[in-house]
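May I ask for a single protein's sequence together with how it folds?
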Amino acid sequence: MPLSPHRFLPLLAAVIGLLLDGCASRPINPPLPQVDKKAGYRYVTRPPRDNAADALIVLAFSGGGTRAAAFSYGVLEELRRTEIVNAAGRKVRLLDEVDVITGVSGGSFTALAYGLYGEKLFDEYEKRFLKRNVQGELIGRFFAPKNWTSLWSDNWGRSEMAADLYNEILFENATFGDLLNKPGPLILATATDISTGSRLGFTQDDFDLICSDLGKVELARAAASSSAVPLVLSPVTFNNYGGTCGYRAPSWVAAVADPANRARPAGRALQRYKEMQAFLDGANRPYLHLVDGGVSDNLGMRAVLEALESWEAARGVGRGASIDAYRRVVVFVVNSLSQPKQNWDRSERPPGDIAILIKAAGVPIDRYSYEAVELLKDLIARWQTARALRSASAFAGGNNPALARASNVPDIDVYAIDVSFAADPEAADRDVLNDLPTSFVLADAEVDLLRASAGRTVRASPDFQRLLRDVGVSVVPKPLAAPAPASR
């Protein structure tokens, strides 16, 4: 029997009400009324630490799903096992000397989790994340009927649902405000502004640009933003209040933005200045849509390169006094790039459309990652040349333009430690590692193999060996028992 209008309309209203109640809304990042460079989650506000004041140690964790998370975790384990003697003559773990950890996509989970849990991470991370079928749980939620109305919402997509899962299994609704007083390194997770291709870091320094209080932002949303693979996961939307909080550019911008300054560094710092200007335009760009950080920087190296070049620029305008306190900068480039074998060139028939699409998306990212490492090596070589030039008696007291440019270069020794599958000394394992997928699920044995590979690759690095010698360590730590080789 058909429903009469007076019975049908109330029922329809009730159904619509239930659907609307089921629709979720994205969290709104709060505005920042006034920039305060001495407050918020940033490097200069970190709690005092009893580590070397003349050295800066940075870990850069790449993207790559669970593969990247496990490989990065293996580096943390190796540095935890490595003991050195600090400037005070006290034996300490090298992990305790780390100052900054950058994380992109899969690497951001390890970075953020270590920032939150510290030493506790080594008891729980494998069970809670690395050896868990996170991908299966995500897919299960996407196809659960109870979540469909939320997924249909205009401002709450698959990545917000993923962030809810990350909160449940790992981050426990913690915010960057909860990291403020945590001991240990600064954690810098990065995502990509899909409109401009610019990198946005989850530190208050970058959130000053959009006049937003990072302290209220959840770690899970940062991880979801950093790992929001286009098409697979939805962008994560943030409000942009740029231009409303009295933001002032740092001192190095004066050297970069002045076209008359011929001694300015290479264009990366200038490009970052242009990106900063775009973020400040909140009036015309009230919303930012963030996707996987690997789209703009899959190694987490751009922040490191820009920092080093901004140091050089700051010295060029007489603002480099604080930089001169450093004697060493150590960068662990933890790159979990895999290169699985394919036989396309053995067949007359070309690969299919999906395979081409995946490859076409990955090749520019991989090439850009390679260039980032080479740029770091070039910067190291340039600084070494400048230091030699300054010390050469032939230029002492002269008015040589080359000497003038060299005077802007900090007197710092830079170590670039390559931690990648290609650098693994065990050739037998490299084929297995390169065949591991970019996903959020791996076999337990594969996770263990990644951890072991990271440890031995760190130990085999010539720059790591040089670092140990320079800090007075002559014995390389013994590795843990290696797991049995994984097979797929």
Notes: The radius of gyration is 24 Å. The chain has a mean pLDDT of 81.
